[in-house]
């Protein structure tokens, strides 16, 4: 008799989602789906608004990664104004974006995922949280809180607020960087770097217990996508979109993302509000590709900073040139924090960062603009069309979690097939199904900024809807 | 007299009418000469990242709106650290934040919560009449708490 397991909502992610696991007549997992159950309306909300409002309006999409939306939106607006921000304006945007990657990755790794990594997937659910980490490894918890605080303080010191900051506008930035702000950020970097070093060292020993598990934790061949600079270095703000296959071979590299609709499709399924992006050459649903920290490491030749490149070399030496398991998103996140901190140090040590020229002014010069940047979770694309007065007529957003949607579904199915046994639902079984989603750090708040204490409700349903088994937490 | 070492945190949602009382109070306290040297912050909610600021302070005064009570009534309560619990994600209550600060950094100063009963949490960026009237009193209560602590 075919049955269905529902995990609703999924916990320790940003937003609301549920997972359904379909069992076949033999009680084996036939399929699994990751449903995003919250609705996003920003593509319509912005219609009729002046284009200059869009960066700050779009930043409201999310409370975790507002800077990413701010920057992608401002870049799209730059195109509509047909302006290039002054170099220092672009660098200040880079600083904000890097700080956001640091604080967002810290939230994902330390707050949301480290409990699983520290205690194991079989541990009691009651202890799998940051306070549990605090008891077992206080330094790890302190470092997590400290890194997130550092990233937020950088954002606040430049953008005025740590959540929904201002300062990024079409054409550049509203104000130059004050020397004392620069000095304050630089003063915090050594401790942030030390905390990241400690976390990397801890992870190197902790991960050994998961080496075997990682081989079936979202492990499958797929393409990867991310931005790279002219020399193949990871880029978070600008650069060309590069797509590599599972063997690391470059499938495509596009300096201009403009005709993204020619190579990226967005499928809509009736069971989720999250669109499923796919690589058109491979069709739907086979055109799976991944974005985010693991993808950025896989597409790039290097990270471009000395300490992070040493880590990348170790990472590739252990796992190969293009690690295929999504479990390694965790380590990629730590390596990327290190790289972002090094980049912050380099950008802020350049005297030009204090230049007063941070904004280019212009009116409406084009009726279409596309902005692409790397958000913490992956490539983010904002595309607008405006009328001659700069009033928004149409918008399309392709967010990182949408790029990863097919991969997340595939990962859930893989883990469910291995661990979920229908005879008896167990906590470790269900935690693994959720944990593979956490590898991607999906930001479902990119539609409604939903967050809170989310209970997990799982039901095993018969075809007639009757509850065969049920558990809550 | 310097209020160095004192941390004042006004928190709430200033786009939810009276929930923004902490922000309005913080705005006045930031320029109040009786709190010269104090660090005055505004936040939408108490988050784990505040724990380090709290552990470094000699006194913390939190200013928040309360859902219960006659609109405009002001209450003062000492916060005792509560052992960490798992029921949080991005926001904490004052006791849990105090507990987190103690657990993470080994020390927590006296923490006082000044609560102001709200009349309205409706959407809007202004205070209701009762809270507008009580705002000067809230400032006096906070400066009194700081002054009293300095004398002890």
Would you mind describing this structure in some detail?
The complex is a heterodimer of chains A (473) and B (152). In chain A, a hairpin with a 5-residue loop joins strand 13 and strand 14 (392-398). Chain A has helices spanning 42-45, 54-59, 66-81, 87-119, 130-136, 138-159, 179-206, 211-214, 260-263, 293-299, 306-319, 329-349, 400-403, 405-419, 427-440, 445-448; strands at 3-8, 17-23, 29-36, 168-169, 172-173, 223-228, 240-244, 250-254, 264-267, 276-279, 289-290, 368-375, 378-386, 392-398, 457-461, 467-472. With 473 residues, chain A is of the alpha+beta class. Chain B has 152 residues and is α/β, with parallel strands linked by helices. In chain B, strands 2-1-3-5-4 form a five-stranded mixed beta sheet. The two termini of chain B are 15 Å apart. Chains A and B meet through helix 5 and helix 6 of A and helix 3 of B.
């Amino acid at each position: 008799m075919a049955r269905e397991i529902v995990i609703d909502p999924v916990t320790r992610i940003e937003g609301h989602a549920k997972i359904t696991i379909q069992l076949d007549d033999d009680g084996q997992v036939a399929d699994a789906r990751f449903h995003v159950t919250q609705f996003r309306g920003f593509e319509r909300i912005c219609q009729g608004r002046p284009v200059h409002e869009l960066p700050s309006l779009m930043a409201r999409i999310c409370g975790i990664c507002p800077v990413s939306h701010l920057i992608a939106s401002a870049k799209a607006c730059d195109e509509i104004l047909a302006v290039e921000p002054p170099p220092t304006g672009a660098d200040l945007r880079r600083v904000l974006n890097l700080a956001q990657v640091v604080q967002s990755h810290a939230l994902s790794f330390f707050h949301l995922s480290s409990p699983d990594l520290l205690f194991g997937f079989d541990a009691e659910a009651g202890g799998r949280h940051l306070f549990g980490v605090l008891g077992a490894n206080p330094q790890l918890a302190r470092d997590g809180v400290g890194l997130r605080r550092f990233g937020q303080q950088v954002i606040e010191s430049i953008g005025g607020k740590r959540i929904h900051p201002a300062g990024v506008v079409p054409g550049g930035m509203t104000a130059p960087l004050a020397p004392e702000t620069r000095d304050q950020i630089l003063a915090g970097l050594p401790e942030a770097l030390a905390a990241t070093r400690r976390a990397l060292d801890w992870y190197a020993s902790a991960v050994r217990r998961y080496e075997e598990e990682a081989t079936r934790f979202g492990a499958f061949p797929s393409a990867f996508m991310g931005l790279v600079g002219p020399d193949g270095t990871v880029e978070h703000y600008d650069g060309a979109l590069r797509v590599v296959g599972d063997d690391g071979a470059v499938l495509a590299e596009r300096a201009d993302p403009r005709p993204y609709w020619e190579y990226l499709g967005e499928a809509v399924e009736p069971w989720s509000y999250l669109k499923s992006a796919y690589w058109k050459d491979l069709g739907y649903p086979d055109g799976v590709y991944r974005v985010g920290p693991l993808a950025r490491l896989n597409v790039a030749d290097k990270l471009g900073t000395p300490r992070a490149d040493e880590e990348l070399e170790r990472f590739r030496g252990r796992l190969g040139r293009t690690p295929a398991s999504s479990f390694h998103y965790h380590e990629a996140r730590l390596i990327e924090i290190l790289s972002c901190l090094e980049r912050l140090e380099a950008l802020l040590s350049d005297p030009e960062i204090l230049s007063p020229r941070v904004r280019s002014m212009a009116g409406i010069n084009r009726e279409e603009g596309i902005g692409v940047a790397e958000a913490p979770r992956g490539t983010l694309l904002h595309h607008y069309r405006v009328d001659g007065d700069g009033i928004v007529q149409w918008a399309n957003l392709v967010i990182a979690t949408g790029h990863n949607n097919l991969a997340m579904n595939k990962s859930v199915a893989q883990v469910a097939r291995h661990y979920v046994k229908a005879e008896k639902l167990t906590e470790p079984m269900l935690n693994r199904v959720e944990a593979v989603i956490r590898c991607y750090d999906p930001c479902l708040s990119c539609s409604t900024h939903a967050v809170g204490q989310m209970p997990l409700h799982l039901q095993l349903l018969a075809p007639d809807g009757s509850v065969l088994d049920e558990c809550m937490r | 007299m310097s209020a160095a070492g004192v941390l004042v945190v006004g928190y709430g949602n200033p786009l939810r009418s009276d929930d923004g009382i902490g922000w309005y109070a913080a705005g006045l306290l930031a320029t109040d000469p009786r709190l010269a040297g104090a660090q005055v912050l505004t936040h939408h909610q108490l988050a784990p990242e505040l724990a380090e600021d709290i552990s470094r302070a000699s006194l913390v005064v939190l200013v928040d709106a309360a859902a219960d009570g006659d609109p405009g009534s002001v209450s003062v309560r000492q916060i005792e650290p509560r052992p960490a619990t798992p029921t949080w994600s991005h926001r904490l209550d004052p006791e849990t934040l105090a507990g987190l600060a103690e657990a993470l950094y080994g020390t927590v100063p006296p923490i006082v919560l000044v609560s102001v009963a709200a009349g309205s949490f409706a959407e809007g960026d202004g205070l209701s009449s009762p809270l507008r009237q009580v705002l000067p009193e809230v400032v006096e209560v906070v400066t009194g708490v700081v002054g009293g602590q300095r004398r002890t």
